[in-house]
TrEMBL record:
SUPFAM superfamilies in the cross-refs: SNARE fusion complex
Entry-linked Pfam families: Synaphin (PF05835)
UniProt xrefs under CDD domains: Complexin_NTD
Family note: Belongs to the complexin/synaphin family.
Protein localization: Cytoplasm, Cytosol; Nucleus; Perikaryon; Presynapse
Disordered: annotated segments: 1-95
Composition-biased stretches (Basic and acidic residues): 10-67
One Gene Ontology cellular component annotation held by this UniProt entry: terminal bouton
Protein name: Complexin-2
Chief location of this protein within or outside the cell: cytoplasm
GO molecular function, one term: syntaxin binding
């Protein structure tokens, strides 16, 4: 004991193996428990999807991807995005229509002043 030597327990390796086995068994039980819980959750999710007519994210993504592929079948370029109203080259016409809209809400004498 003085030289830093420790007494070696002859059963230490056996105890260590039993301890490791117990840890593995606990981990397996924990994984099994969590997989059962997740399966129950998925059942509940599916009943809700069925009840309200919802789809899984994977199904939605697959349908959207298929729709995009169908739209692009004969095209060599990607599909054009829809341009929202007012974002195109017709800026002058929009400004005039906005001014006309504002003038409609003004009293008569003010309308006459702005029209001149």
């Amino acid at each position: 004991m003085l030289g830093g030597e420790e007494e070696k327990d002859p059963d230490a390796s056996k105890k260590e193996e039993e301890h490791q086995e117990a840890l593995r068994q606990q981990e397996d039980e924990r994984k099994a428990k969590h997989s059962r819980m997740e399966a129950e959750r998925e059942k509940v999710r599916q009943t809700i999807r069925d009840k309200y007519g919802l789809k899984k994210k994977e199904e939605k993504e697959a349908e959207e991807k298929a729709a995009m592929e169908q739209a692009c079948e004969g095209s060599l370029t990607r599909p054009k995005k829809a341009i929202p109203r007012g974002c195109g080259d017709d800026d002058e016409e929009d400004e005039e229509s906005i001014l006309d809209t504002v003038l409609k809400f003004l009293p008569g004498p003010l309308q006459d002043m702005f029209k001149k």
